[in-house]
Design a protein that fits this description.
The protein is of the alpha/beta class. The chain is built from 16 helices and eight strands. It has one domain: P-loop containing nucleotide triphosphate hydrolases (Rossmann fold).
Amino acid sequence: MEKSNFSEEEKWWGDNHLEQINGFWFMPMLIPRIHRVLAEFNPRPSDVILSSFPKTGTTWLKSLLYSIINRSSLDSLVNNNPRDLVPFLEIQVYGDQESSDSSTYLSSEDTPRIFSTHIPYQLLGKTLESSGCRVVYVARNPKDTLNSLWHFANKWEMAVEGPWELEEAVEKFVSGVVPDGPYYEHVLGYRMAGLNNPDKVFFITYEELMDDTKTHVKKLAEFLGCPFVEEEDKKVEEIVKCCSFGVLKNHEVNKSEDYTTWAPTPYTSFFRQAKVGDYRNHLSDDAIKRIDARTEEKFYKSGFVYGI
């Protein structure tokens, strides 16, 4: 694939660039992989796709969805990072053609198969709609999303050359030039899909899930077609506990400083704090005002009163 001519506005971190597909920005290494997903992925009607913008609770939702569907295999979370149990379509399943073996993931006889993706609905929607698969999307407050993304990116290998400064991160987030951005369009694409087709797209916010995890685990199970019966209340509580941040973070596999085989970051980087409102400890008043103004412009004017 030929590289496009870069301009200043396509830079997101120092001299690191993002490339665009239909208005969304991606890291250059992911461009061919995303094209592979769009061209080759044929979901089964029984598949479950977890979609999200980066750093919005993806790892937590992976553990919850896996546990809801595989209730007799909760021990798998002890020895496996949730991101290995629920692979990314554009990173693990359809990775580099020379090194990845997508058939390993795609030929699974498991029903349902569970995959994850950060690809926006505006790109992936036709594929999802035509298959009849179920989609779960988690959204998170934009300020906490940015704060978590900033911390996460600074644990990457490329941070050794120079950190992603917070002021630059705020500027790029607001303008939409961040990996898988713009954030607002990403969230709104899946929210609209959920409003239009609630039987196939389950839209939830990180804050809702944090506020009452047990209730939403039951709702997710109903959506996935495997509801809990009354006598399984203890199983619900067990899943909530096994998938809690404190328990997951303390498994040896998730404390490992080893780099994953599919991303330039250690396993431990996926578990930081998982708090609601932690942005207040890092973002300036000016940064908060800038993001809130953008949130009002994008979300509130679209009828989605969220994020401020």
